Amino acid sequence: MPPDLMIVDVAMCASNKEWQTRVKGQTDTYDVKFGRVEIGPVIYDYTCSCPHFQYRLVGTGTHCKHIKHVIEQKLRCGWNEQLDHGLRAELPDWCPNCGGPLVHERVGV
């Protein structure tokens, strides 16, 4: 029998749902996005508009150099209440890490 799940409301930075920036490459500027990607199971991952990205598999952890730059420079906040010392009773209407908007998700814990 599977364990019982408790459903809780978790606050997270909006950049966990949808985020984008432009990254200058050697020959052009590319759009790097983070958001929902549907490839079989629905996952959230990065995509890039560069030609090289077309040959990479989304969701495998292999990224083009533009996405690697975004990750290494920590350009996307990605704050999540559950990963920041557990659930809090009171939160402001903005991300405590970057000051951007918050979104709320119902998750099973």
- What best-fitting shape do the alpha-carbon axes yield? globular
Structural class: mainly beta
- Largest sheet strand order: 2-3-4
Count of helical segments?
Answer: 1
Give me the count of strands.
Answer: 5
Radius of gyration: 16 Å
Total of domains: 1
What's the arrangement of secondary structure elements?
Elements: E1 7-13, E2 18-24, E3 29-38, E4 42-48, H1 65-72, E5 102-108
Antiparallel strand pairs: 1-5, 2-3, 3-4
Describe the 3D structure:
The protein is mainly β and 109 residues long. The chain is built from 1 helix and 5 strands, in the order ββββαβ. It has one domain. Helices cover 7% and strands 35% of the residues. A 3-stranded antiparallel beta sheet has the order 2-3-4, with helices on one face. Strands 1-5 form a two-stranded antiparallel ribbon. It is globular.
Summarize the structure.
With 109 residues, the chain is mainly beta.
List the keywords.
109 residues, three-stranded antiparallel sheet, mainly beta, 7% helix, two-stranded antiparallel ribbon
